[in-house]
Amino acid sequence: MAALKEITDARIEKYLDTTRRALEKVRVVAPPRSFSAKIAANFLDMAQRYCEDARHFHAKGDFVNAFATVNYAHGWLDAGARLGVFDVGEDDRLFTLLE
């Protein structure tokens, strides 16, 4: 298998779409007044901000930073799912679940 040596527009579009679908699926399940709810809110906020940054970089044609930030956004979502503060419906295609 050949190594990927460039970040294409199509690849970024794919990752942006995957992260968009993941953001739509995430539901906070931590009790509203708990410390876990604060963690969930922070993780979701970080994911949304990094996703917005990725769209911004993509629109500017900065594919390297778009690729990096969209993957960082999705990492926050995966972390929340694995920690158990997000319900992702056992979706192991959009998320990296523990089991």
Task: Give a topology summary.
Elements: H1 9-25, E1 27-28, H2 35-60, H3 63-83, E2 86-87
Helix pairs in contact: 1-2, 1-3, 2-3
Radius of gyration: 14 Å
Q: In what order do the strands lie side by side in the largest sheet?
A: 1-2
Shape descriptor reads elongated
What's the number of extended β-strand segments?
A: 2
Q: Give the class from helix and strand content and strand pairing.
A: mainly alpha
**What's the main sheet like?**
2 strands, antiparallel
Mean pLDDT: 94
Top keywords for this entry?
single chain; 99 residues; 3 helices; mainly alpha
Tell me briefly what this model is.
The protein has 3 helices and 2 strands, in the order H-E-H-H-E.
Report on this structure.
With 99 residues, the protein is mostly helical. It has a domain at 34-89. 65% of the residues lie in helices and 4% in strands. The chain has helices spanning 9-25, 35-60, 63-83; strands at residues 27-28, 86-87. Helix 1 (9-25) packs antiparallel against helix 2. It is elongated. The mean pLDDT is 94.
